[in-house]
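Side project, low priority. Logging it here so it doesn't get lost.
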Amino acid sequence: MHKTLITLSVLILISFLSYGQQHLEKTGLTKHLEIESKYLGEKREVEIYFPPSYQGLEIKKYPVMYVMDGQEYFLHPVAYQKMLRFKDKSPEFIVVGINSDRKKRRILYHQDASRFINFIKKELIPLIDENYRTLEEKERIYFGWEMAGGLGLEIFANHPNMFSAFFLASPTHFTEDRIAALDKTTTENTPYLYFSKAPEETYIEKSLNEVDSVFKTRNPKHTFWKVDNLLGEDHYTTPLKTISNGLRDYFKDYNTLRFYSLKEFDEFGNLDSIKKYYRHRGNRYGISTDVHRTTKHFLLLNAMTENKFERFEEYANEFGKYLSNPTREIWAVRFGNYFAENNKDKEALDIYESGLNKFPESPAIHNAIGTFYTNKGNEKKARIHYKLAIEYAEKNDDSELGQYKSDLGKL
């Protein structure tokens, strides 16, 4: 009895650990590191988040976001991508949170900033790039709040190619030396800087205006910057909004294109313009350069909705593989019906058949084929598909069963 209980406990533990591992693989993995820093003369705690695909895609490389005061802000960029990546609104990226001591940070972010910068540049970043699959300086983001914002400005002024983007929330300590150094900065890349403040933070307006003035007098082609007044926020709530706004803007070319009318598409360009957009997207993020299925879908849908059959046919020829692999039964029906309405019988049947290959027991598709053959005067084939529609509708308790029986009855 005792051995049985032990065995049962072990099995439960193994099951629990297995579930936990599956859960980590689906939501991502977090690692805790302690780095012995010769520049800081102490151990520094670091949290690292890896997105779900990191475990399986051994050739893919990822952007990295470095978060100062990670004990407070590490989870913000993690939550951001978890919320949006499943809809292809955000790329997956690694997050590195650098934990800080409230007492020491005031010294390390200001008077001893050079020591902390050396720790990041010469110890932490090389460790991350050498041990994990990163896009290195090509896609490396810095986030800092308050004094860490001033530190970020110093990093950009003196080491402009260290990060590709800076999100600085409620930044303080924009000293004369830091602003003067900024005026002499030259960059090899095109960095992105996003500064934010709350309306109550009038005490940082002067320094923000000085920084803004420096950027305006320099060649703006080499730097993109934005100063944002976050209405409704205060000194302690700006980080969340800053991270969200910064990531959304910095990764805006990751978005899939959705056009809600043909006019909107025409204003964007043409099919070549779309292909160029996705080539850039794929090359930047190391993903497919093919036109996203969402874009294909909306172009076809708009052409059909606006009854522009020539354009529908053009897009169908361009995106034939998308039509032959419908995501839902309804689209095999709707697109097939539209071909049929325009006397393109072969194309209509091809779409219906593609739908049945993926959804073989679809009452809706069988009923659409039945209607197609009814209109062609082929009662025998129509009856076969109407009956199949009824059979599968009864099997799956389909709410359209009455309609399918009515269509068969009309024969």
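Brief comment: DSSP finds 19 helices and eight strands in the chain.
Revisit when time allows.
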